[in-house]
Amino acid sequence: MSSINPTHATDATACPLCTDTGGHEVYSTPLWRVVRVEDSAFPAFYRLIWQSHVAEFSDLSAADRQACMEAVTGIERALRTALQATKINLATLGNVVPHLHWHVVARFDWDSHFPNPIWGTPLRSLAVPAVQLLALDLAELDERVRQALAELSA
Amino acid sequence: MSSINPTHATDATACPLCTDTGGHEVYSTPLWRVVRVEDSAFPAFYRLIWQSHVAEFSDLSAADRQACMEAVTGIERALRTALQATKINLATLGNVVPHLHWHVVARFDWDSHFPNPIWGTPLRSLAVPAVQLLALDLAELDERVRQALAELSA
Q: For residue A48, what are the β-bridge partners?
């Protein structure tokens, strides 16, 4: 695929996802790690970060794409089971940090932006921190995600 | 997985992606169809729509998840090969229409929102319509996407 445009930032030495964990680490394998993103508006927000520095999903081999999405699915299922989420949002953008990472976010009809994307316009203010409205505390939620990912790897 | 929260809208009769094509159809299989979204700011914007009414990616079987993402990858590769895109963005949100669909959007460092998400704040105005800045016209781009998807299904 020599005609594919290379990413605009292939310099791993300047990549924050190559030099830093990128969040509160929940689980890690040689291929990918999962962190919880610390976002007060969206507390049930996890990110799967591919360990090696590739920009696009299609840069992965077919086997790696499958492994990647089965892990994303594991996070999604853990969030669905643990929380009464209205919807799960999945995205890989990478416009700012072109190192493959997947956002997995549990959305609620009461959250500040719903049904807008988390990157869109907020629609309401909450009377209490969003984390207080989750069915589980974050340590327990992390544990559920960790267990789901460990089962996948088993 | 009986403890998984069902989607908030399982009524397919009220679902616009069950009753309408959802865009300019480019390719279709029994499992999914691909349409080009008519968005003047983001002309190289395709959407893979799952044919049956499921809300979440994890509602699919493992085989269907793989078929889904291989098709998404086919669109991504066609866009990368045809256009000098800065980045490809993939997302499945479904907060408004909870019928599984994947957004596949070619992003350019000159586009109105880059590097913000397409749902975020615009950062600049263009002097000409964005479609005029693509390396191919849309009919030819559609054909490249169609060919990539036909090869997958062959």
A: A34, A102
DSSP letter for A15, please: -
Determine which of B2, B47, B56, B110 to mutate to test the interface with A (most A C-beta atoms within 10 Å). Answer: B56
Q: Which pairs with CB-CB distance under 8 Å and at least 24 residues apart come from B8-17?
A: B8/A86, B8/A87, B8/A109, B8/B98, B9/B55, B9/B98, B10/B53, B10/B55, B12/B53, B12/B99, B15/B53, B15/B97, B15/B99, B16/B97, B16/B99, B17/B49, B17/B53, B17/B97, B17/B99, B17/B101
Cβ atoms within 10 Å, residue B39: 14
ipTM of the complex: 0.93
Q: How far is B94 from chain A (nearest CA, A)?
A: 7
CB pair distance less than 8 Å for B96 and A115: yes
User: Half-sphere exposure of residue B91, counting CA atoms within 13 Å on the CB side?
Assistant: 19
Sign of CA dihedral B41, B108, A100, A139: negative
Q: Which residues in chain A touch residue B91, judged by CB atoms under 8 angstroms apart? A: 89-93, 117
d(CA A137, CA A152): 23
Q: Which residues of A touch B152 (CB under 8 A)?
A: none
Q: Are strands B87-92 and B32-36 parallel, antiparallel or unpaired?
A: unpaired
> Under an 8 A CB cutoff, do B76 and A95 touch?
no
pLDDT tops 60 at residue B5 = no
Confidence of residue A1 (pLDDT cuts 50, 70, 90): very low
The total number of residues written for chain B in this structure: 154
Supply the pTM of this predicted model. 0.94
Single-letter code of the amino acid located at B151: E
Residue A87 with chain B: CB contacts under 8 Å:
7-8, 55-56, 93-95, 98
Q: Give the total residue count for chain A.
A: 154
